[in-house]
Write a structure and sequence with these properties.
Strand order of the largest sheet: 1-10-9-8-7
Largest sheet: 5 strands, antiparallel
Radius of gyration: 18 Å
Helix content: under 10%
């Protein structure tokens, strides 16, 4: 298997402290709840369309434990695949700029430039990894393969992972033991642009195993396709529709993927150890109240939290496929939700944070 080129810089790096993994909420979300807006996600340069969302596990560099990092996919002109910023927001609503990435000064290749996606993670050693699926004019005709950008804890891009099996990184789930981390990256550009709006079955989930320390930049050890044949297509409103939300069971034995075009959640078994693709995996739930499932997270009790882009619902699903909770998060747009609910992350205790890219806000449901 051809590995992507791994480009590193000679920048002086700070010592980074270990940090615990984010904790997902236990709450079922089956009963009444309320939604409150925490803050706008729009930084000073006007970037729009918040996609990725992750909770900072421990204070390191300019990262502060308990804050939320959010990646923006659009620029101030609302062109998709051109957003370059990551903001940091406190639970109280204070917004600061964590990073503004200049495509012209990257330390390595990122085919097409920078357009930050939902694929966002903070490793235990403090490194931040974010996906890029860039365009030059906001349309799928100019979409290119992009890359994964690696940032230090002060928001500086220090290396890129690109090429080989990385082709339109759209979302990501992470299993991290502090020394080795496994990134499960969904890719949505395999044959998609050439399909011209028709559905193609070439979407993948790739496990990227990386080594990391507090002071040495992450390096790729191996890449393995663990899921394949997912439906994907270009879309004038959403740019690309394909496998989006991804989340791991608490014990790492199952990877759940939101298969947006087929309105289902599927399960890939043994994602940490498998050496072959599980195809689309096994269907956990299809149809019912699933309608354009986009965001996905797994609670510490093993239940699956899914946000829908075509009805605005937050659903709670058990691993055996029972829908046990349904709450409306977004009643705006036609249809409700209107493709706006991507990043979702559990809050310690109960409740969830989520981003709404129709209103460009970070919100809390509890």
């Amino acid at each position: 298997m051809k590995l992507p080129n791994i480009v590193k810089t000679s920048a002086v790096l700070l010592s980074l402290a270990l940090s615990p993994a984010p904790v997902f909420a236990q709450r079922m979300h089956g009963g009444p709840g309320k939604t409150s807006t925490i803050a706008s996600t729009v930084p000073s340069n006007g970037d729009l369309n918040p996609y990725g969302l992750v909770r900072v596990p421990k204070t390191t560099g300019s990262l502060v434990e308990g804050n939320l990092l959010i990646s923006n996919f659009n620029d101030s002109n609302n062109l998709q695949g051109t957003g370059t910023t990551i903001v940091q927001i406190t639970p109280g609503g204070t917004v600061t700029l964590f990073s503004q990435i200049n495509a012209n000064t990257l330390p390595g290749s990122c085919p097409g430039g920078v357009g930050l996606t939902t694929a966002l993670s903070v490793l235990k050693t403090g490194w931040v990894i974010v996906g890029s699926l860039p365009t030059t004019d906001g349309t799928s005709a100019t979409a290119q393969a992009g890359c994964l950008l690696v940032l230090d804890s002060n928001g500086n891009v220090v290396e890129t992972f690109y090429g080989s099996l990385i082709n339109g990184p759209w979302d990501m789930a992470t299993w991290d033991d502090g020394g080795t981390a496994n990134l499960f990256v969904t890719n949505v550009l395999n044959g998609t642009v050439a399909g011209g709006g028709n559905i193609v079955r070439q979407g993948t989930v790739v496990r990227i195993t990386i080594n990391q320390t507090q002071t040495v930049m992450p390096s790729i050890e191996s890449m393995t396709v663990v899921g394949s044949g997912f439906a994907e297509r270009t879309d004038p409103a959403a740019l690309v529709i394909g496998p989006t939300g991804a989340g791991l069971s608490p014990d790492g034995s199952t990877l759940y993927v939101a298969d947006a075009l087929f309105n289902r959640v599927v399960a890939i078994p043994e994602p940490l150890t498998r050496v072959t693709s599980a195809g689309n995996g096994a269907v956990v739930l299809q149809g019912a109240d699933l309608d354009d499932p986009l965001g996905l997270a797994v609670a510490t009790n093993g239940n699956i939290l899914v946000t829908n882009g075509a009805n605005g619902f937050l659903l709670t699903i058990t691993p055996d496929g029972s829908e046990i909770g349904k709450n409306i998060l977004d009643e705006n747009g036609t249809p409700p939700g209107n493709g706006a609910l991507f990043g979702v992350v559990g809050v310690p205790g109960w409740g969830i944070y989520y981003v709404d890219d129709a209103t460009n806000t970070l919100n809390l449901f509890n």
